[in-house]
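Fold this sequence, please.
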Amino acid sequence: MSDTSSDATTPADATAPAPSPGTDAGSGAARPAVVLDVWCELQCPDCRGALADLRVLRERYGDRLELRLRHFPLDKHRHAFAAAQAAEEAAEQGRGWAYVEAVLERVEELDRTGEPFLVQVAGELGLDAEEFDTALIDGRHILIVDADQAEGRAIGVTGTPTYVIGGERLDGGTSQEGLRERVEEIADRLLAESS
């Protein structure tokens, strides 16, 4: 999912392959030296709990760390697959992470209301809610969600949140304790190696 929003608190989020450190030859723009893939599910209370750590990481590293949302909807949550598609539509409309955070902050409403809640949040964020509704009906983002889920399974993701940084997989589905510190250790090492 990519988010080109100019909101300074919203990092870029993409499902494209990890960029290499350095400069983008096409634009001359600096690319993040470190990429953190966050395998997430928007109906997952543990993912909501991880938001505070993600905010701290964004504040600490700024544009040196790219957070990328990777979808891993779990079968036990009936609205998770639709929520993943909605997050992709939000990214397409330029507010991917803002949307993800808004939905995760209100997991209980998603549990109770389902797809109408996903469209409601889009409207609250000033996104085109009608287009959200259409996207959920026509399934235009299903392939992205399916590809993320398949890749997650292939690398051993079994629950959410799971983080992948510098080739290391960190499982946050069991416990969040110490994970942010471990991500920081790896990020600091990777940043030191890239400078």
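The two ends are 28 Å apart (CA to CA). Residues 1-29 have pLDDT under 50 and may be disordered.
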